[in-house]
Amino acid sequence: MSFTYSAPLSKELFLLDPNIVFLNHGSFGATLRPVFEEYQRWQRELERQPVEFLGRRFTELMRDARAALGAYVHANAADLVFTPNATTALNIVARSLRLNPGDEILTTDHEYGALDRTWRFICRKTGAVYKQHAIPVPVTTPADFVERFWSGVTARTRVVFLSHITSPTALTFPAQEICRRARAAGIISIIDGAHTIGQIPLHLEEIGADFYASNLHKWLCCPKGSAFLYARREMQNLVKPLIVSWGYESEKPGESRFIDEQEWTGTRDIAAYLATPIAIRFYEEHRWDEVRAQCHALAQYARTRITALTGLPPLSPDSTEWYAQMLALPLPPCDAAQLKARLYDKFHIEVPIVVWRDQPHIRISIQAYNSQEDVERLLQALAIMLR
Fold first, then answer.
1. What confidence tens digit (pLDDT) does each residue in 279-329 have?
2. Would you give the distance in Å from CA 108 to the centre of its chain?
3. What's the CA gap between 220 and 381, in Å, rounded?
4. For 36-282, which CATH class?
């Protein structure tokens, strides 16, 4: 296969170890140097006068950061709050719901393990049922996905919960149509968008989810400990504080109870949140739609070569409808943990090997710093290891 590719950005723009082939951006992300420098600038600003920073400037600083984020994801800033990660954001929502015995939370069997655990915890306390509806692979069309998923809805369904981009299978699910149907049926829609912002364009008000969470530290390349929760205005009355602090029954009420209760949860370092506008500006200045398209082309090349190597069918059609910069591909039977360790120890390649439905899969992330050489080194290593 003839293919020539140049990385859109130099790896030196990131803080990554230059000796490691890093194909695992999806797990924790990698922060851009200018964003990390802005993050540290805010940390020093905080320490220079902590009382001034947290006691008098906090509300304005957070409002400005939310405004930049809201413009980027096409949502009202008053409907957004920063959280340390998407798991925390989704726990806020899950723990706020009043579920009764027999109520059903409909989901898929492609979800992130931490959230599966969250919902099982909630169900043990409430008697609700976490219903993991199987979505077979390879998937075919978004319309077929919607019908298959919706066939799991019953008279007891109170919540639909699914990933926008899944963690184990890296598939993009048609969240907007699911949310539309849920709204029409009076069912609460909760979307785990941990892998979305920065990897695909986000229009939250068009998606129409009641609740949506995403990590800023992954594909937007912000510092670790930065994510957001979006709550549709009409649903914010359902949300309770995960941590009760001065924002609860606030003596100085702000623009909404939702923001008061979720934004001020005690003394903490908010520098990661305040670095968000710089990350957004960097993406806009570097024409990120074009960068995404280039990264997808390299992901597509990796997909073609690996499926030829393994002889195993991919999980989806070859389309941006189903994957963007991250993809998962099945591997022949092997010891997944050993393969991952040997790829790292012997070949200095950081890439996850996950077991899903009892089959090992390799999940490859392509970010702007990845080169064709990175993929070629992975291909060479897999050819040796899978012989």
1. 999 999 999 999 999 999 999 999 999 999 999 999 999 999 999 999 999
2. 16
3. 29
4. alpha beta
Q: Which of 271, 307, 328, 302 is nearest to 26 (CA)?
A: 328
> CA 215, CA 196: separation in Å to the nearest integer?
8
Alpha-carbon distance of 105 to 131, in angstroms, equals: 6
What is the residue type of 31? T
CA distance 165 to 145: 14
- Token pair listed for 210: 């009641």
Strands 349-350 and 129-133: unpaired
SS3 130: strand
- What CA–CA distance (Å, rounded) separates 191 from 207? 10
**Sheet of 326-330: strands edge to edge?**
326-330, 359-365, 353-356
pLDDT in tens, 172-207: 999 999 999 999 999 999 999 999 999 999 999 999
pTM of the model: 0.97
Return the domain boundaries, the chain: 11-32+287-385, 36-282
CATH code that applies to domain 11-32+287-385: 3.90.1150.10
